[in-house]
């Protein structure tokens, strides 16, 4: 249902843009989000965007990451700028429909930031 892409290896200070394409569409999702799991750490919510356009970020990425959604392309993006080594993680996209209790996950895309 969800296909994440755009990860890779980048030097500190660089940028990457993650994409999450939903084969079933994202217009029915109440909220779309990007999570990450760094080695040895718990999974954390990085950014989320609701169908109404409300956006939230974890404090550590505020001012550096931007989440957006394009319902016409059924895709959610995560623009990541000024990347830091501590941003290294596997990034997962997620989509939720509260009415039908649906919870979809993408396969994850690895982001590695070298110092």
Task: Please describe what this structure looks like.
- By secondary structure, the protein is an all-beta fold.
- It is built from no helices and 11 strands.
- It has strands at about 1-5, 10, 15-20, 30-35, 45-50, 55, 65-70, 75-80, 90-95, 100-105, 110-115.
- The strands form 2 sheets. Strands 2, 4, 5, 6, 9, 10 and 11 form a 7-stranded mixed sheet that branches.
- The radius of gyration is 13 Å and the shape is globular.
For the structure shown, list the relevant keywords.
115 residues, mainly beta, 7-stranded mixed β-sheet, 4-stranded antiparallel β-sheet, 11 strands, 55% strand, globular
Helical content band: under 10%
State Rg: 13 Å
Characterize the overall form: globular
Average pLDDT number: 95
User: What's the main sheet like?
Assistant: 7 strands, mixed
The tally of helices reads: 0
Helix/strand/pairing class, anyone?
Answer: mainly beta
Strand content: over 45%
What is the helix/strand order? EEEEEEEEEEE
Number of strands: 11
Distance between the termini: 34 Å
Q: Outline the low-pLDDT stretches.
A: none
Short structural summary:
By secondary structure, this protein is mainly beta. It has strands at 2-5, 8-11, 16-22, 31-37, 44-50, 55-57, 65-70, 75-80, 89-97, 102-105, 109-114.
Summarize the helices and strands and which ones pair or pack.
Layout (H helix, E strand, L loop, with lengths): L1 E4 L2 E4 L4 E7 L8 E7 L6 E7 L4 E3 L7 E6 L4 E6 L8 E9 L4 E4 L3 E6 L1
Parallel strand pairs: 2-11
Antiparallel strand pairs: 1-3, 3-8, 4-5, 4-9, 5-6, 7-8, 9-10, 9-11
